[in-house]
Amino acid sequence: MSILAELSNLRVYFYDSSDKRFIRAVENMSFPIENGKVLGLVGESGCGKTVTALSMMGLLVSEPGIINGKFLFEPKEEDAKYIRSLLQKVKVSDPDEEMSNGDRLNLFYGLKKFISIEENPFTIIKNTERWLRYHDTVMEKIRGKNISMIFQNPLTSLNPFLTIESQIRKTLLRYNESIDKHEITDMILELLRSVRLYNPEAVIKMYPSNLSMGMAQRVIIAIALASNPKLLIADEPTTGLDTTNKYRIIDLLNSIIENKGLSMLLISHNIRLVGEIADRIAVMYAGILVELGDKQEILKIKKSPRHPYTEALIQAIPTDYDLKKGKKLKVIAGRAPNNKIGIKGCPFVNRCFYATGEIKKKCTSKMPPLVEVSNGHFIRCYLYFK
Ligand SMILES: Nc1ncnc2c1ncn2[C@@H]1O[C@H](COP(=O)(O)OP(=O)(O)O)[C@@H](O)[C@H]1O
Ligand code: SF4
Ligand SMILES: [Mg+2]
Q1: Which tens digit of pLDDT belongs to each residue from 232-243?
Q2: What is the average pLDDT across 361-382?
């Protein structure tokens, strides 16, 4: 397994000044992203998927932002030296904090320096301005050039006053200093062809308001690819598209990954959609990783162990067969736990069908550990931990 990036123990809390309490968004989130592979990140709305992605991109600006964790990433060779020198300038006193692991650099290295945490009462003091200045300097070389992000609702990501040609041109020039200006139009047309936009000569002259949602998302993908990144993060890239376009975009992303050998973090609330192209799937619940494994184990093998929440997520999404048969969907009853208070037991306990009798005592008393149930397949549930 060759690893491009690895997130470990990401912990993000926000401060809600209206009632002077912290909101837990992500708790000890960890996963690796392999070279040339797709990792799907799934879970209900509000479970922390976007916050995880924004933290990795260094785009989390609200107070207090990332408060803990590591993000190891292997940048392009030409950027690695520069980033390492920037990171070395932060002299951290914490012996636990490592800057690198082999060729990968910890892009969160030194951020702790701008924070102090008091546990009782739980308080976070952060020098936001210094943090952002530092983080921006480091991430500038990473964002776009090494990691590109595609957001949901493509039309809000495009500038309504510029033609598609000038928007792609700007990105190409920003990341490719040696580009021959005469060739740039050909490159733009080629990029648009690569995202299967027909008649690209006409599309380059258009403004975003001339595009359908499906076309706009293709333009966004073209812009994300213009810098030739190593990792693509797609956050709900098909939200707002009709079913046919949804699957076309997923199919397009799949062929891009295969042809260019990129890695991708594909985020969606729809586990079946993610299953179309993911190699591995991480399931998040209430900011916590509850299952991580190969797609086959998580989606296909009926008898293989599975987290009760993953099972509920799968049953909540209809298959074409279910729709034809008019089968009723199983909604996941109840709500995710309040994110303003600490979680004592399993976060899923108030919605879990398996939490009965003796096992329920365990489920309510302590957070279950993440256990490796088979090679590379991890589950956080007492059904698999004796
Ligand atoms: N800027 C912010 N300020 C305060 N709370 C936030 C902010 N962004 C996200 N949250 C909270 O963090 C949690 C996770 O949000 P998010 O990552 O957007 O969920 P998802 O992408 O899985 O739908 C939610 O409870 C959300 O309300
Ligand atoms: S630990 Fe208990 S409550 Fe949590 S998912 Fe497993 S059985 Fe359900
Ligand atoms: Mg989101």
Answers
A1: 999 999 988 888
A2: 95
Query: Pick from 334, 305, 329: which is nearest to 316 by CA?
Result: 329
Question: Does 383 sit in the ligand 2 pocket, CB within 6 Å?
Answer: yes
User: What is the number of alpha carbons within 13 Å of residue 24 lying toward its C-beta?
Assistant: 18
CA 11 – CA 68 distance, rounded (Å): 5
Q: What is the mean pLDDT of residues 32-43?
A: 97
**Which range has the worst mean pLDDT, 197-201, 246-250, 338-342, 378-382?**
338-342
Is residue 308 lining ligand 2, measured as CB closer than 6 Å? Answer: yes
**Region of poorest pLDDT, from 73-77, 116-120, 162-166:** 116-120
Q: Which residue among 343, 370, 383, 384 is best mutated to probe the pocket of ligand 2, counting the most ligand atoms within 8 A of its Cβ?
A: 383
Atom 5, ligand 1: residue with shortest CA distance: 14
Rounded distance from Cα 12 to ligand 1 centre (Å): 10
Pairing verdict, β 104-106 and 66-73: antiparallel
Domains of the chain, each with CATH number or no CATH = 3-34+55-146 (no CATH), 149-273 (3.40.50.300), 300-384 (no CATH)
Cβ(338) to ligand 1 under 6 A? Answer: no
Burial of residue 261 (CB within 10 Å: 0-12, 13-18, 19+) is exposed
Quick check: 307 pLDDT over 90? yes
Ligand 2 neighbour 354 (Cβ under 6 A): yes
Radius of gyration of the chain (CA): 22
Residue 285 CB–ligand 1 contact under 6 Å: no
Q: Judge if the beta carbon of residue 116 lies within 6 A of ligand 1.
A: no
347 lines ligand 2 (CB under 6 A): no
Mean pLDDT, rounded, for 206-217: 94
CA distance 337 to 342: 9
Instruction: Tell me how far the alpha carbon of residue 148 lies from the centroid of ligand 2, in angstroms.
Output: 36
Instruction: Measure 289 CA to ligand 1 centroid, in angstroms.
Output: 16
Q: What's residue 1's pLDDT?
A: 77
Q: Whole-angstrom Cα distance, residue 308 to residue 310?
A: 5
- % of the chain surpassing 70 pLDDT: 98
